[in-house]
Amino acid sequence: MKKFELMTLPYEVNALEPVISKQTLEFHHGKHLAGYVNNLNGLLPGSGFEEMSLEEIVCKASGGILNNAGQILNHNLYFGQFSAPKADNAPTRPLAEAIVRDFGSFEAFKEAFQKGGATLFGSGWVWLSADKDGKLVITQETNAANPIQKGLKPLLTFDVWEHAYYLDYQNRRPDHLAALWQIIDWEVVESRFK
Length: 194
Ligand code: MN
Description:
With 194 residues, the chain is mainly alpha-helical. It is built from 8 helices and 3 strands; from the N terminus they run H-H-H-H-H-E-E-E-H-H-H. The chain has a 3-stranded antiparallel β-sheet with strand order 2-1-3, sandwiched between helices. The chain is globular. The two termini are 32 Å apart. Manganese (II) ion binds next to helix 1.
C-alpha cells in the first residue's frame, strides 16, 4: 500500500530568515509535519482509506485519519508557497486583478487576510481560495480543516497554530502574520489559481 512521505522543502531551512527562523522551520517541518505523516501512515492500514489521495481522505474521513491527513495537506500547501524574503512582494496578473476585483485593493486584501488569522480563536488556518466561479474568498478553518471540504480551491494559507510562530514571535501572532507577506512565492500561488 501507498505510504505518505514528508514533503521536501523547496528551499534551505534558513532561506526564510528572519521572517521564519531556521529553528522554527526545523521543528515545524521536521517534527510537527513529520509527526502527522507518521501518525497517518500508522492509522491507514485496514481503514479503507489506504488507496486514496490526501484530498479524498480529507473530504471523506473523520477522527484521527481526517485530522492527520488534513494537517499534511495544509502544511504541504503552506511550506510550498514560500521563498526568500523580498521587499514589495506582490502578485501579478491575473491573480492581482482578481484580488482587486474581489477585495478592492491588494492592501485591503492583506488587511482582511491578516485579520482573519489574528481573530481565529485557538488553532487553525486562514485561507484564500477560489470558488467554482473563480471568485476569491477568505475563510477561517479551525484545527486541521481545509477549504476543499467546502468545495473551494485553496490558493494561499497562513498557519496560526502556535507552533508556527511561538519560537520567533511568542504571543505576537499579528506581527508574525504581517511579516509573512515578504516570503510568499506568488508564482506558486498563481499556479494554483490557474
Ligand atoms: Mn503547523
